[in-house]
Amino acid sequence: MPPDHAADRNRESEGRSSASLVRDPIDPAAVLARVGGPRDGAVVLFLGTVRDHHDGRAVRGLTYEAYEEMATAVLHELVQGTLEGLREGSVHAVHRLGPLGIGEVAVAVAVSSPHRGPAFEAARLLMEELKRRLPVWKHEYYAEGDSDWVAGVPLVPDSRPGSGK
Amino acid sequence: MGFSEEAGLPESSVRLLFFARCRELAGCEELEVPLASPIALGELMETLRLRVPALQALPPGVAIAVNRRVAGPSRTVTPGDEVAFLPPVAGG
CA nearest A71 in B: which residue? Predict the structure, then answer.
């Protein structure tokens, strides 16, 4: 397929970035299966997992809540923006919602590209953007029996639809 | 904007959505409030504070999204819009 034809490029780019919010456990192998191709020499997988402590307190689990329609749109926008920055390769991101136990995967990001540098960088950037922009909230349950919302990052007004950053 | 059908819609309103701590403060997930004609988000907020007691003490850092885009006070809100109250986010 001639890769320099505009229509082809568009069609290809659609299949090379994907994102979803899920309520079932995230399977890292399934995340990896969404990226990579014969031109890629690097695949980076990042997993964000639930840890058993926060600010010195023992945590026994948490619940993620989301503004689902908006979070889905934002996540798609972010992976698409990441792909545009990469130019070659593929990007997939999944965020879990609902109740999670210690050690479970809360978020997974996979990036493939011809070389490792851009893949590492893109995965890192995507995670930072996701933490700043995704309308998702974390409610932690502590060992002592109480619970609270985790202090987060205030969202800032969007300048224009499609402005990735 | 949106005036063509307005006369035929006696129940012109906006849908308010509350999430996380905002949901707990409001005591509900959503509310419908009447809105007859377009208004700036900042002005709408002034009106809402009188009508919805929970909105008088929003926690710091709450952002407001209009139709799923985070908006500033000058953003126009039109009957039929979805206005969401979003505390600081903590995904990932």
Answer: B68
